[in-house]
Specification:
By secondary structure, this protein is mainly alpha-helical. It contains two helices and no strands. Helix 1 (about 1-40) packs antiparallel against helix 2 (about 45-75).
């Protein structure tokens, strides 16, 4: 049962990381699309949107990797979401 819990916990971390990396890019692209279609801004607005989205996603991944590496070097387990144990 402990192995199954570990597997589900790893899947949860991976899913959360995926959403945290994907959301900024999608949000900035949506914002650029809205500005172009609703307010008539030029199409080059997509370029900064892509750069900002990828920059935010890279920063999110960098912070996540640093925290996990710091916990691994201390020999601690990653924080658990089930605090009852």
């Amino acid at each position: 049962m402990n192995g199954m819990y570990k597997l589900l916990e790893d899947i949860m971390w991976l899913t959360q990381l995926g959403f945290s990396i994907l959301f900024p890019l999608v949000f900035f692209l949506w914002l650029a699309h809205w500005l172009v279609t609703s307010h008539g801004w030029p199409m080059w607005v997509y370029v900064p949107a892509i750069v900002l989205g990828l920059g935010c996603a890279a920063r999110t991944f960098w912070v996540f990797a640093q925290r996990m590496l710091k916990k691994a070097s201390k020999g601690e387990k990653p924080p658990r979401f089930n605090r009852h144990r």
